[in-house]
Write a structure and sequence with these properties.
Blueprint lengths: L2 H5 L8 H6 L8 H12 L4 E4 L7 H6 L4 E5 L2 H8 L8 E4 L11 E6 L10 H13 L1 E12 L8 E2 L5 E9 L3 E10 L4 E10 L2 E10 L3 H10 L2 E7 L13 E8 L1
Parallel strand pairs: 1-2, 1-4, 2-3, 4-5
Antiparallel strand pairs: 5-12, 6-7, 7-8, 8-9, 9-10, 11-12
């Protein structure tokens, strides 16, 4: 039985402990992401799905764009609210694949692989359809997501799944590991972030469903959207066979 069946629940796994540490390691692409999203939003407004702690939403709002959000984790919302400007954002607690807001947006966006937090293809399709539902007639839907190719370079075990162990941090006081198993059939990875210290062991389980760029394009078509642009990053890098992620822009057909 995979660990997620016993301990992973997306409604609770991004709880207070994860929220408290979420901003400790900036990804370094925040400025480029905000610049690109502000260009696409124009006069706005914008809606961020899985807004989290406001890593992107708050600096985007600081450019003058009105930003609303949907977020499943109450702990992440509370972390956002504690930041300067966090109280000014309208954030709805709920499932980004199902919550329907009354407004329509020039920009709806979903960053940092958050689409993969939905663990089935149906759930991901529902999310894309919901994003399209919130777009104004001239609006665009933007998705930032990893390309799954590295999953096919993992060690294949006898049980029919690929697995890996990565040391993500080592120093004199702690060792941090990421351990995961990937099922090619379901496109799902079950993993755990493990921290070993002299004070004990902590576990942070996570489950994701990888989605290919071409698969995402078909989801968008189901929602009545078409691909308008795809880059290898927020600065407009070309998307090619070496790209490890993509930023894809969709608009109404």
């Amino acid at each position: 039985m995979p660990f997620d069946a016993m301990s992973f629940d997306p409604r609770t796994s991004f709880g207070p402990q994860v929220a408290a540490l979420y901003d400790d390691k900036p990804l370094g692409d925040e400025e480029a992401a905000v610049t690109r999203l502000a260009q696409l939003a124009g006069a706005g407004p914008a809606l961020e799905l899985a807004i989290g702690t406001g890593r992107i939403a708050l600096p985007l709002a600081a450019t003058g764009v009105r930003v609303d959000g949907i977020e499943l984790s109450q702990a992440m919302i509370e972390r956002l609210r504690a930041k300067p400007g966090g109280d000014a954002l309208q954030v709805t607690c709920g499932d980004m694949a199902a919550v329907e807001l009354p407004d329509r947006y020039r920009l709806v966006y979903l960053v940092f692989n958050s689409l993969m937090n939905l663990l089935t293809q149906d759930g991901q399709v529902d999310c894309v359809v919901n994003a399209a539902r919130h777009l104004s007639d001239d609006g665009v839907f933007v998705v930032e997501n990893v390309v799954p190719d590295p999953m096919y370079g993992l060690r294949h075990d006898r049980g029919g799944v690929d697995q890996y162990v990565n040391a993500t941090g080592i120093d004199g006081e702690r060792v941090s590991l990421e351990v995961g198993r990937y099922d090619r059939v379901s496109q799902r990875v079950d993993k755990n972030h493990i921290r070993l210290t002299d004070g004990g062991i902590s576990l942070e389980p996570l489950a994701l469903r990888y989605v290919w760029p071409s698969e995402l394009d078909l989801m968008a078509r189901i929602a009545g959207l078409r691909l308008r642009a795809r880059w290898g990053g927020w600065s407009g890098e070309p998307f090619d066979s070496r790209s490890l992620r993509h930023v894809s822009v969709y608009g109404r057909a």
